[in-house]
Amino acid sequence: MTGAPRRRRAGASSAAPIPFVVLAALAVGFLALPLVGLLAQTPWRRLADELAAPQVRLALRLSLVCSLGAVGISLLVGLPLAFMLARVDFPGRNLVRALTTLPMVLPPVVGGVALLLAFGRRGVAGQWLDRAFGITLPFTTMGAILAEAFVAMPFLVITTEAGLRAMDRRFEDAAATLGAGRWTTFRRVTLPLIAPSLGAGTALCWARALGEFGATITFAGNLPGSTQTMPLAVYLALENDLEAAIALSLVLLAVSLAVLIALRDRWFPTA
Amino acid sequence: MLRSRFRPVAVLLPLVLLTAGCGGGGGQTEIKVFAAASLTAAFNKLGEDYAAANSGTRVTFNFAGSQALATQIQQGAPADVFASADVTNMDKVKDLVSLPQVFASNRLQIIVAAGNPKGVKGLADLARDDLKVVLAAPEVPAGKYAEQALDKAGVTVEPVSLEDDVKSAVGKVRLGEADAAIVYVTDVAAGGDKVEGVDIPADQNVPATYPIATVKASTHQRQAQAFVDLVRSAQSQGVLQSFGFLPPPIS
Q1: Which candidate in A227, A240, A242, A243 is best for mutational testing of the B interface (most B CBs within 10 A)?
Q2: CA distances from A248 to A97, A157, A258, B150 (A)
Q3: pTM
Q4: Complex ipTM value
């Protein structure tokens, strides 16, 4: 933010039209006030007790398990997908890219219903999973992980693909000239070069998975310890214990802030 | 770049648009009725009746678990009428509403897939390992009633999910994800061909009572009261019973 574009002379900020200043201040107020409200209502003295409550610990742990699981799945299949989208000119590539982005714009509840129709007990693939392996995904932790991965993976794929497109490919060419195979080149040259994008994509993906609500409650249901993640616990606590809901919200807010701070160099270049 | 003579326009325009949005289109009043999810079908019908009898007033509904609605009203949501599926949640907002009147009651039933493929005969069957049972969360009236019914029957159930309103529990059975759920008789009736109900005997059943009240903060008291009166009228009682509700218990 401070002095990012060095091409402009200092003092150029006075050129902003006054209405913009007013409206921008409105925008800042609109975005900041809910956070102020949350902090103002936080039961600071009892915060430790609220967070130590067994259901809260259960939800916290489950949220970590599910969100990390979702990140794991996203890395495993999302990174190769990003590579294919960035480097390989296969037929239907644009269609695949659109499909990959779809969960970002789809209402998560709709995603949850779609997951049920695909992986539910009577779903297209779920029926087969049930018959062949006796696996049913709804109402299981694995179901919650899949719901989160469905919604969060696009963030990893899109960010990583952008990194792959932006990197200087001459380094890869040089490695190939020196006799490195495709896999070695990827591991030793490409991966380190796209590390910042991959890191940012992973962080975004994780934050999105951690905050996932709609697809999870629709597809995986809500049971403390197996599918009730933090956002679900916040939602249900809101209805009978506002202070517990605020305490849980605060944890999610702290995590979001940590992600922002970790990514500050990427989004708010200061040099 | 905006020259100085445009500035007032640029500042005022959004304000004008904002206030215009609040004014409402002349004459047409709208009342917002916050109603328990289990009332969805019956109240949609009563809303039509109300609109037919009161031209110039529109009814919009906010259907959700009563506990969610009570929280929304506590937080200042713009409700004109509140209809809860239990007395507990009405009590939570008792300072914010007029004197509640019970207008209907309901019973619990076990909802299963049509044809009852798993052969569920009563609450005791819900403890079986081969059944996936969903309940409404204990915060939800239907979930609280279900807990009480299971207590009465001395049955311990391990649900696979605790849904955030009774309609979601119905949905899980309709989709075939769950084998059984404890819901209201009226939900089974509204559930269509894909589901059927298994009765819970009276000595295990828990009667649900539905109180209704106008919200004190409402700026449409007259219209809100008219809706409450309509719901309590003899004609509407007939409508409610056609959806499976019972008359209010005699107290």
Answers
A1: A240
A2: 35, 29, 16, 31
A3: 0.79
A4: 0.75
